[in-house]
Amino acid sequence: MEQEYVLSVKVNNNNGVLLRVSGLFSRRCFNIKSLNAAETEEPNVSRLTIVVEGDLKVLTQIKNQLLKLYDVHEVRILEDAVTREHILIRAGRSEEDRHKIIEIANLYRAKPVDVGKESIMLELTGEPAKIDSFLDLLKPFGIIKMVRSGITALERD
Amino acid sequence: MILSGSDIIVECLLEEGADTVFGYPGGAVLNIYDSLYKYSDKIRHIITSHEQGACHAADGFARATGKTGVVIATSGPGATNLTTGLATAYMDSIPLVAITGNVACNLLGLDSFQEVDITGVTMPITKHNFIVKDINELAPTLHLAFKIAGSGRKGPVLVDIPKDITAAKIDYKPLGKSVPDKPAEVSEADLNEAARLINECERPYIYAGGGVISANAEEELAKLAELCDAPVSCSLMGQGAFNQRDRRYIGMLGMHGTVKSAAALNSCDLFIGIGTRFSDRVIGDASVFGKNAKIIHIDIDPAEFNKNVEVYTTVAGDVKIALAELCKRVSQKKNAWTDEIITTDYGEPVQKGTEQLPVTPEAVIEKLDELTDGNAVITTEVGQNQMWAAQYYRYKNPRSFISSGGLGTMGFGLGASLGAKVGCPDKTVVNIAGDGSFAMNLNELITAYAHNIPIIQLVINNNVLGMVRQWQRLFYNKHFSQTTLDNRHIDYVKLGEAFGIETFVIEKNEDIEPVLKKALEISKNKPCMIEVKIDRDINVLPMIPAGKPVVNPITEIDLEA
């Protein structure tokens, strides 16, 4: 059955490592829904959080193929994990919009980071589902620009 | 000891035991070639006609000897000319280290003369690659390249070295030969499950791939076959993994496998795939492959499990260790089915010539097999010549069939034969080619002469691109589009003469034995060539069309239809 899986991949923080990983996904025809890369507590190691779509067979293939890359140390398929996403979004076409947007932002505890005459920029961190519903509520006001960080995740103890 | 980067490269090669390298000089590797000049009493460099040939030669050397092959090329076009060779080695899991020069670090990224991002280009066709931008990293990187190439599932590794790094000097301390990673332990539970299935089955079928050869596991394979009393088939890459003069050998499996191997596949109750990746050219229709049997898959690379076919159980690990452990757990069996498979005549096709061109590849290759007692190293090009070489020579030894199985690289064989002969000077090495493939890289005859590498180049000349023609006949309404080479008119005797290669022609059946004998005699001292003239409509049979179930192969093609 096709579904989304979150992979947490530890890699050498080498030149070209993102290209190696993304190249593998593209040539093996695996789908990446989102990919987030950043340094970890060890400066030589980066953690990639990759959301993929596929069935269990594809998931196993992805894991095994990733592990063949010299720069990949560890691949974990996250089951019980804290997942978070960050969004920056500018919305609103009038002063009235702006006020209503602030009301929604308060509900979600989103933080205003830049206020214009008619529009406002907000930031929010939360579970991907929360970000989705926040976005849905803002849509009627006209989304001017936005960027989502992609999912980051860490396993629970 | 203060050494330059280029001296360090040669020192590292020598520490790794690489005393023979193939390559081609150029601007960005001038320093390296200066060091090769200095070290010429310790390291042999063979210059080919083209970097592609050098890469295939390093590959052939690796396949024939089991050592890691080394190829050196300059930046830009020199480096890109390696790509077909690297992709060939990658698909067939052959350990290579390719060293390319590049422009100096301060010129990188500026579209400098002969600059190419070769690590970017070769990322999908190497096991790993490096660019060295710090002289202190040079020696560790080169040793790591050898380690990666030779560990686990082997493969090619490229090291790109900018020119200023080869010129820079540091105090060098030898690091010593790299040690391959120890293979992971084979799971006890997996072994026990595989052994249980083997002990309980009645009709076991062993199918061996190139992984058996890479792991040097031929003895363990033979022992397992004996213990569980199974017929044995080999993939194209597995030719030589099992002695084909043994009664248990039932021929190759797959698109051009024997009728017998297909029949056994469909009546076995346990299919044991060893060191194989279940290529599409073997399994045909994956949804029905081996459906009457349980499949055990034993391989070093877990990524191959359930990739192309769904299997019942798997054993991950070094094939040699896994088979040895399995043999301890399997009790001696005797299966009536095995005898039946081995003794039944399934009506394998026999090649026929015409009145004008009576000679068949079958007759020539079988005679070659007889005269060399199956002990020659055969390299091949790709197409009909490759399949005939696999079908009609009865390989006894691992590393004696050298062919581009995965990538299917026309133009591979001649370069590979040079590498194989350099690596195994005491063996007879024959490159079996078609006229199409031969024309792709025949420039390497120059190398054979120049370095006096005494191979036999056998050109099976049918004046067509025979394999494509065969498909055009069967599936494209006999539209022989661009596959008829009648306008070429190559005089192989004169061609050979121009390169200094004595050449013979076989056009009658009476020519076969004397010409082969003469060539085998000459090849004790110098290279020679044989042209075999055959009819253009001798097809490769049996045949299973691509993607179709491996059942009842085609054994006859009606040329009038």
Largest sheet of chain B: 6 strands, parallel
User: What topology, given as strand order, has the largest sheet of chain B?
Assistant: 3-2-4-5-7-6
**Secondary structure category of chain A:** alpha+beta
What would you give as the CATH superfamily of the largest domain in chain B?
A: Thiamin diphosphate (ThDP)-binding fold, Pyr/PP domains
Helix content of chain B: 25-40%
Subunit arrangement of the protein: heterodimer
What is the averaged pLDDT score of chain B?
97
Order of helices and strands of chain A: EHEEHEEHEEHEE
CATH class of the largest domain in chain B: Alpha Beta
Key phrases:
heterodimer; A: 157 residues; alpha+beta; Alpha-Beta Plaits; 2 domains; five-stranded antiparallel β-sheet; four-stranded antiparallel β-sheet; 9 strands; 31% helix; 44% strand; elongated; B: 561 residues; alpha/beta; Rossmann fold; 3 domains; six-stranded parallel β-sheet; 23 helices; globular
What does this structure look like?
Helix content of chain A is 31%, strand content 44%. Chain A has 157 residues and is an alpha+beta fold. In chain A, the strands form 2 sheets. In chain A, strands 5, 6, 7, 8 and 9 form a 5-stranded antiparallel beta sheet that branches. Chain A has a 4-stranded antiparallel beta sheet with strand order 2-3-1-4. The mean pLDDT of chain A is 94. Chain B folds into 3 domains: 170 residues, Thiamin diphosphate (ThDP)-binding fold, Pyr/PP domains (Rossmann fold); 156 residues, Rossmann fold (3-Layer(aba) Sandwich); 173 residues, Rossmann fold (3-Layer(aba) Sandwich), CATH 3.40.50.970. At the A-B interface, helix 1 and helix 2 of A face loops of B.
